[in-house]
Amino acid sequence: MTASVEIPDIASGPAGQQKKKATKSSGSGLGRYLLVRFLLIIPTVWILTTLVFFLMRVTGDPITASLGGRLTKEQLAQRVAEAGYDRPLIVQYFEYMGNLLRGDFGTTVSDNRPVTEVLAQYGTATLELVLFSLVVAFIVGIPLGMIAAKCRDRAPDAVLRIFGILAYATPVFFIGLLLKLVFGVLWPVLPVAGRASGSTEILLDGVVAPTRLYLIDALRIGDFAAVNDVLSHAVLPAIALGLITGGTFLRLVRTNLIGTLGAQYIESGRSRGVSEFRLTTRHAFRPALIPIVTVMGMQIALMLAGAVLTETTFEWKGLGFQLFQYLQARDFVAVQGIVVMLAVIVAVTNFIVDIIVAFIDPRVRY
């Protein structure tokens, strides 16, 4: 007769149950955190949209602001009535919000185009510039910040700290003009205007189902001359806009890496003979990266604001360039639509950043 021995289920014991509860709590904490962050997008966009709507009406209706002086009083009154701007302001507001919920941003006054068409045509140009600028910011900020932290209170650290402050504090249009002077006049090796040369733009406009991201479209058709042309046009605008964020990243990486390198687990690694390079790049860098990811959403907002000056300086025809043109034309319908779209982009970007931070550092979920 064989005796049967019942093996207790360890997982069902107190320790196992505690582990299950912790896992369940972590999952529910992450879900609750992401839900709250997602729901915050709605009031953020609504408040900004409301502010923009009423501020744009301070000087009167968009028709009068844009076309006043170019039409007779009778023609102007007719256009105002046809557009519905003679109705009470609160009625116009609720109608505008209702149209936004249906994806209707209105029609521009100056060139009679749907605002959604303007956003689709020029939004990708701004997106491409911001992506290029982020690459520059990471290339400048992260390695130089690590070098500054390792050379703390020495000459390289002092030089890099001054560089970071200057990069952050210098106006983007001044950097742009300086780059155009150096690389367009004194040493003419890079193009100083536009997203691409005329021949490349004609080529990319003929791409079937274009993404309107010039680099992606050039890679899709396999034309490396076009790829080189697009990249060469992007160098100076990306540097001008990326240096501002790069200076911020440099200072953040330096400060947080210095704090992390003094942590107890880093000292324990040193005592076991782990190399300084491995301690810095593998063990200390990830915790130091969390503040960078956290502020990235705000930096995207600053980049979108800086894109107005950068695109105007380099004639980069994106949303910033068009926003400047519509402001000059006092086309408040177009301005409203572009600002609302930028608000949505910033809010969604911050939500994505919150997701990344939640996975990097579980402590923020609670």
- What gap, in angstroms, lies between the N and C termini? 56 Å
Shape: globular
- The CATH homologous superfamily of the domain at 118-329 is called MetI-like
CATH topology of the domain at 118-329: MetI-like fold
Mean pLDDT: 80
The topology string of helices and strands comes to HHHHHHHHHHHHHHH
Number of helices: 15
Point out poorly predicted stretches. 1-16, 18-23
- Architecture (CATH level 2) name of the domain at 118-329: Orthogonal Bundle
SSE class: mainly alpha
What amount of the residues lies in strands?
under 5%
Helix content: over 70%
Number of strands: 0
- Name of the level-1 CATH class of the domain at 118-329: Mainly Alpha
**Main beta-sheet strand count, sense and barrel state:** none
- Report the C-alpha radius of gyration, rounded: 27 Å
Subcellular location: Cell membrane
Domain ABC transmembrane type-1: 123-357
Region (Disordered): 1-26
GO cellular component, one term: plasma membrane
